[in-house]
Write a structure and sequence with these properties.
It is built from no helices and six strands. By secondary structure, it is an all-beta fold. The termini are close together.
Length: about 80
């Protein structure tokens, strides 16, 4: 089951040859180290593109969909897919 969240989050990301890779996010004062990115995609948003990532955390209990909005340099947790 998917749960809509749409909360702003803090993200630590790496930038390299493979592009932008989120490594950790903080949501509601809790740190979520990312163990694997399972999918990436972009969606047009006016002059910019939103960058989406489906990620698993170290506990691998749920799949999180996070998104980077380059217009305001903000990250958002959009959805949680799991048994919450």
């Amino acid at each position: 089951m998917a749960y809509e969240v749409n909360d702003r989050i803090e993200v630590m990301a790496a930038f390299g040859r493979r592009g932008m890779e989120p490594r950790l996010f903080v949501w509601k004062s809790r740190r979520y180290p990312i163990s694997r990115i399972t999918a990436t995609w972009t969606e047009p948003a006016g002059l910019f593109h939103h960058h989406h990532f489906a990620v698993l955390t170290r506990d691998a209990a749920d799949l999180y969909e996070i998104c980077f909005h380059p217009r305001d340099l903000a990250w958002h947790l959009l959805r949680i897919h799991g048994d919450q």
